[in-house]
Amino acid sequence: MKILIIEDELQLAQNISAYLSDEQYLCEHAATFEQAMEKVTVYDYDCILLDLMLPGGDGFRILEEIKRLNKQDGVIIISARNSYDDKIRGLQTGADDYLAKPFHLPELAARVYSVIRRRNFGNNNVIRQHELKIDLLAKTVTIHDEPVVLTKKEFDLLLYFIGNKNRVISKSALAEHLSGDVADMMDSHSFVYAHIKNLKRKLNEAGGGNYLKTVYGTGYKWEI
Fold first, then answer.
1. The pTM is what?
2. Domain end residue (candidates: 70, 95, 121)
3. Region 108-120: what's the mean pLDDT?
4. Do 82 and 117 share a domain, yes or no?
């Protein structure tokens, strides 16, 4: 799962990134209004942490742009501006949550998890599809009640496919999801194919259905 931290206070951004990285999230950072606008218009994120006071512009303009583009990224405002009006404006503009500074990192992580769970998985902690069961909190996968051991990348891919079930996802979108904005600097997406090949093999060997389909010349799709 990919997170964008829009925060000009470098130490806070680093602390958030370190904590969420330990929780198995892929984190990117934007320190200015201009950097943030570029990232939100070019890339997709599972959740965006948005500070309102940024060098070069107001965070509300970023939120408005996300909604104008009809993007589905979850947004949590993190701000020292703890006024009632700011909270109402943020939520009415389209933010999913509002967390006033200072805050505890475990609470932030819980809210990030809640936003992603609500948006992608119908507010469920456990995802079931026939013989397949995924526990989001424990980060475990079982097929026919037997554990399937996946790497972090494979588990992230599985969640990404299920969260976008029945949609064709391009290799470039998968590369970006797995590697963030550094995917643009890679010569090929062969690493995507390798992770998908391993994921399919492990699911099939455990007796899982053939849900992950290759759409030749386009990408991949999780069918149910």
1. 0.78
2. 121
3. 90
4. yes
